[in-house]
Amino acid sequence: MQRRHFRQWRDVKVLKTGLTPSASGSAYFELEPSTPTAASKSLASKAPALKLTCTVHGPRPLPRSAPFSPQLLLSTRIKFAPFAARQRRGYIPDAGERDLAAHLENALRGVLIGERWPKSGVDVVVTVLEGEGDDPWNRGSLGESGQTGGWAMMSILSGCITVASAAIIDAGIDCIDLVTGGVAAIVRQPTAPPQVFLDPCPSDHEGIFAACVIAYLQTRDEITELWTKGNVMTSTYGNGANTMGFEPLVDQAVEAAVAARLVLIEAIKESTEVKIQRRPIGHPKNAAS
Description:
By secondary structure, this protein is of the alpha+beta class. It is built from three helices and nine strands. About 25% of the residues lie in helices and about 25% in strands. The strands form two sheets. It has a five-stranded mixed β-sheet with strand order 1-2-3-5-4. A four-stranded antiparallel β-sheet has the order 7-6-8-9. The chain starts with 11 loop residues before the first strand and ends in an 11-residue tail after the last helix.
């Protein structure tokens, strides 16, 4: 089976905005599986994919009983659909979903220009329709305890940051820059030293030593969220200590975020062109043209 190059980013199959008319902004994100087993007719051997949808509600005024807030209040929520993974999830958000929502809130808080909406709030809701898993059905990654760990959650968070950014732009909320998510991991290889992989899929690798996911603003060269997991020091192998470490891992995650930004820009351009074409001829913004 042909493997991806360690610096090759997986192709984004779909990234579209404006799919939910009832929301202020919305986006859909789908990442192709990295292995050709997805074409198999067997569900048990199907490679995991990543399918996310995001809706933005607001900005809208806060209730009169709420205390005055000089900035926009951001609320984020990430919910796995019951059918998103092989192990069925409940309807009540668990600790993992709340943890992902907290990371997403930190990533978006530094992007929004909140001073323009005093005493207002905005809700960002991300639904995971299909999530990459490192469960026993696949060749899961090894966590710190030696059992299958939650490495797939980091890839999901990276996608959540990108799809939320697209939905916020679709809602017309002013931001200082486009924020995109990027993830990289130091993976174990059967016949070679560990290598830093861009956009890893946990089910494709024998084991993962450490992983890093970031929310990156390319124009400002800033990171609004950084989450690392694993032990980078134990990921050295032989004389490969000069290529392993925290800084190379973050650099590769930044490279993945830059690649995601290119896809996001194209999706925004396509959405803007569609909106212009659908605008009535007598619209005030078309009067000048």
